[in-house]
Amino acid sequence: MNSFSDRQKEVIDVSIKIIAKKGIQQLTIKNISKSLGISEPAIYRHFESKIDILLAILSNFKEMTKDSIERLQLINLSAIQKIESLFMNHFKNFTKNPELASVIFSEEIFQNDIRLSTQVLEIMKYNQEAMLGLIEKAQRNNDIKTNIPREQLSLIIIGGLRIIITKWRLSNYSFDLEKEGTDLWKAIHKLIAP
Amino acid sequence: MNSFSDRQKEVIDVSIKIIAKKGIQQLTIKNISKSLGISEPAIYRHFESKIDILLAILSNFKEMTKDSIERLQLINLSAIQKIESLFMNHFKNFTKNPELASVIFSEEIFQNDIRLSTQVLEIMKYNQEAMLGLIEKAQRNNDIKTNIPREQLSLIIIGGLRIIITKWRLSNYSFDLEKEGTDLWKAIHKLIAP
Amino acid sequence: MNSFSDRQKEVIDVSIKIIAKKGIQQLTIKNISKSLGISEPAIYRHFESKIDILLAILSNFKEMTKDSIERLQLINLSAIQKIESLFMNHFKNFTKNPELASVIFSEEIFQNDIRLSTQVLEIMKYNQEAMLGLIEKAQRNNDIKTNIPREQLSLIIIGGLRIIITKWRLSNYSFDLEKEGTDLWKAIHKLIAP
Amino acid sequence: MNSFSDRQKEVIDVSIKIIAKKGIQQLTIKNISKSLGISEPAIYRHFESKIDILLAILSNFKEMTKDSIERLQLINLSAIQKIESLFMNHFKNFTKNPELASVIFSEEIFQNDIRLSTQVLEIMKYNQEAMLGLIEKAQRNNDIKTNIPREQLSLIIIGGLRIIITKWRLSNYSFDLEKEGTDLWKAIHKLIAP
DNA sequence: AATGAATGAGATTTCATTCAT
DNA sequence: TATGAATGAAATCTCATTCAT
Fold it and tell me: Mean pLDDT, to the nearest integer, of C11-34?
């Protein structure tokens, strides 16, 4: 799809790490190039501008999001199981890749450019629509209460997902995200089950 | 408690507005002074440094948070009613003061300085403890399911609160926050009611 | 009219000198600030951008041009004498201020920005219209041949003026501009007299 | 004489076009290579440095100038006819090749290097001497007034030539150069004829 | 309390050029 | 003959802050 060169992937990678560790304000061309051990102008062989680096990060997220949702659709699971899987996969992924957590839910970072914020909104929308679709199916299967509108159910599930990750991040990854995530899912599941 | 001068309050005010409208990267001494119609050095009569402005913003939030929670405790309401009130008050306040929404839940903004992030964590903690206390009481009153640990209930309630405000902000305040907030509360209430 | 501060005038001044001596490519903020003995950022207190410095130079030229033409109109001279005066004044001014010569007829310098080239064209137009008006009057007074269209006469006079200044400049100001200018005017006068 | 390779000629060509369209400041190795559809280092296979490209442009002009003057000398025309031919040929050539006009009379472009400005001065000198020689002959043939020194006549002719081309270029080639050139020549001819 | 002038540090970006392949 | 990757130098401009007034 979006075929980034090896160097481009490296740039994207260290950029995410820099944002995660030191915040967007420290994402400078100097810091990126220092991390890669090359000169500052060398970055411009691989990206036309700094904004393009941020766009590449988002483009990467978008692909990842789409892929994981599409893969999920193909699996032979019930809708409620797919919701659980979607929910829990986030924790697995972020545990493996904690930097991602800092960037993926930090809409503020991408506020200052229309192209960036458009991408962010599209990613959010994509996630929400997937969740809504699954909730609808699960309700039809009678695996989720039907007396609660799916829009609100979706907000509650995604809201829970986001806040636990935010807490984990702000606590400096000091608790076991997968364990706390499982507990949260159990609670949500108990609440929404008919 | 912290007694800010009139000018200091003005600085805090326009700073919040700038962050809300243009992001933290645009919060510069130049932009602040331009918004206030004074010169840049004049800012330094009122704040020793830029960090002090951000600390003042957070200090302000902290006071507001404490105040509203303390006031809530004094009112003659049941615990579940207090939770509802806490939940709904946010929407009222943000509808009146949309800029606040952009800053109050943007922890990323305050990531790059220990003094700042410490303040942010304290505010979060304060809110959570208040919520936990109320949930406990509501459970004792049998107004909330008791078979779900209050830690998870708290996450779900605050998570829902945060995500709806985030959506509202990213949508450029394009929907009726109070109405959507009411719908969300109804759903949560139905779910957590015994 | 355009009221430049003292510092702004200094910037304009050294900028003209730099262009004259080293060409437009050496007109850098660094060189300007070095010439003035201040730091580079200090320049930006006085001009918003480099383009604004160039615009100020042109704005200055425009004023000078307008002024000198307007002053000329008021003097009690015949049209042909005014043409001579216009012609010869250039040599006097440039002899006093040789750097001006390098910039005033270097349209190429101002090619890369629409605002700049617009200004250049306006200055040229202004000069040409003044010259056309004077030629017309002189022809009516029978001081200039009437069997030659004034458009061509204007081109010949201004063309002569420009080329002699160009030669003087490229020769590193190595000949007496006023003397050569007088000789040229004598020749032109002899040719265009009826 | 100077035998440029095909690639070198291409480089010279696009360089002239770039200078004409966007000014000398946009004549960068990057822009040259982009125009040619090759990589930047590839340019250095054909020219040792950027200055060498500019020198090649001037060297080309010099050859062209010499050629056309030498060819003119061989033709069986009177001196005044040769002057007319020299004058009018410029308009024909520039109409065919408008970019040339932007560069050939832009001495400022070549100001910042001694080797470049030396070349420019030589070309000018060559042209002037040819013109002076022709005027002298025409005066001896009694085709041009003899009471005007040929130095001034030369200035007037070449000055007229240059200014009309400058106007044409700054007007974005918006008028018929050959027609206006003819009108100008008629005027000059009428003036200088005995 | 406020300002005009200034600055050191640093940001993004461009440029001519080099080198290994 | 050509390219991908890289770089030192330098350009424009921004930022937080200081100081004399």
Answer: 92
| Max CA pair span of chain B | 60
Tens of pLDDT, residues B133-165: 999 999 999 999 999 999 999 999 999 999 999
Model confidence at C7: pLDDT above 60 = yes
- Residues of A with CB below 8 A from B156's CB? 156, 159-160, 184, 187-188, 191
A2 falls in which pLDDT band (50, 70, 90)?
low
Nearest residue to F6 (CA, C1')?
Answer: A42
Cβ proximity of B108 and A106 under 8 Å: yes
Instruction: With CB atoms and an 8 Å threshold, state whether D160 touches C160.
Output: yes
Q: Angle at the Cα of B121 (from B120 to B127), degrees rounded to 5?
A: 95
**Predicted TM-score (pTM) of this structure:** 0.89
pLDDT digits (tens, 9 = 90+) for C129-172: 999 999 999 999 999 999 999 999 999 999 999 999 999 988 88
Provide the CATH number for the domain formed by D57-192 in this structure: 1.10.357.10
Interface check for C152 against chain D (CB to CB < 8 A): the answer is yes
Which of B22, B163, B183 has its CB closest to that of A158? B163
- What does CATH list as the number for A54-192? 1.10.357.10
Q: What is the dihedral of CA B1, B6, B7, B8, to 10 degrees?
A: 20
pLDDT, tens digit, 9 for 90 and up, residues A118-135: 888 899 899 999 999 999
User: Which of B60, B192, B61 has the alpha carbon at shortest distance from B131?
Assistant: B192
Mean pLDDT of chain B, nearest integer: 92
Second-level CATH architecture of B6-192: Orthogonal Bundle (1.10)
* Sequence ranges of the domains in chain C: 58-192
The tens digit of pLDDT for each residue in C24-76 reads 889 999 999 999 999 999 999 999 999 999 999 999 989 989 999 999 999 99
State the best of D24, D111, D127 to mutate against chain C, taking most chain C CBs within 10 Å.
D111
**Long-range CB pairs of D15-22, under 8 A, 24+ apart, other chains included:** D15/D53, D15/D54, D15/D57, D16/D57, D16/D99, D16/D100, D16/D102, D16/D103, D17/D99, D19/D99, D19/D102, D19/D103, D19/D106, D19/D109, D20/D98, D20/D99, D20/D100, D20/D101, D20/D102, D20/D103, D21/D99, D21/D102, D22/C111, D22/C112
Closest C-chain CA to D124: C167
Please identify every stretch of chain B with a pLDDT value under 70, giving residue numbers as ranges: 1-2
| C-alpha span between D158 and D166 (Å, rounded) | 12
Is the domain defined by C58-192 classed in CATH 1.10.357.10?
yes
- Asked if D165 reaches chain C (Cβ–Cβ under 8 Å), the answer is no
Say yes or no: C36 contacts chain D, CB-CB below 8 A.
no
